[in-house]
Amino acid sequence: MDPETRTPAQPPPAAPAAHAPHLFTLRSARVVTAPKICRDFVVGVVRAIGWGDLADSAAVCTSELVTNTYLHAGGAHLLLRVRVAPRRVRVTVIDGSAVRFGEGRAADDAVSGRGLLLVSALADRCGAADRWGVWFELDTPVKAA
């Protein structure tokens, strides 16, 4: 290739963690494999930005929220959003249900409810998103200078 016409090499982009905020989105069918696909997506984002120490908590929390969506929500799809900010990552799971939280979504207490307790224990913050979804946040550990 002629050096005069060759495209100059581009430096690799800066890690998203260095700039705020970045949003990564995955749309998934509401199928039995959705929890694994979404969990792997979130873990991939967290590791790619250099926050591998959050990977295990992010995996468990994502799996719990997506599993709840698979089991209890309506609609054929779900939307997963991973928002990276300078010192935290926020994962939101939005389902395709026409039924909002608190409007007829029944839970069987004998087999349900423990996953959200686990998310509450692992995440720094969690809650409902626009009543059609749920979210959690994990803070990055502050490193000593």
Architecture overview:
The protein is α+β, with helices and mostly antiparallel strands and 145 residues long. The chain has helices spanning 34-48, 55-72, 114-122; strands spanning 22-29, 77-85, 88-95, 125-129, 133-139. A hairpin with a 3-residue loop joins strand 4 (125-129) and strand 5 (133-139). The chain is globular. Residues 101-108 have low confidence and may be disordered.
Describe the secondary structure blueprint for this structure.
Layout: E1 22-29, H1 34-48, H2 55-72, E2 77-85, E3 88-95, H3 114-122, E4 125-129, E5 133-139
Antiparallel strand pairs: 1-2, 2-3, 3-5, 4-5
Helix pairs in contact: 1-2, 2-3
Radius of gyration: 18 Å
Order of SSEs, N→C?
EHHEEHEE
Low-confidence stretches: 101-108
What level of helicity do the residues show? 25-40%
Descriptors:
single chain, alpha+beta
Provide a quick synopsis of the model:
29% of the residues lie in helices and 26% in strands. The chain is an alpha+beta fold and 145 residues long. The protein is globular and about 40 Å long.
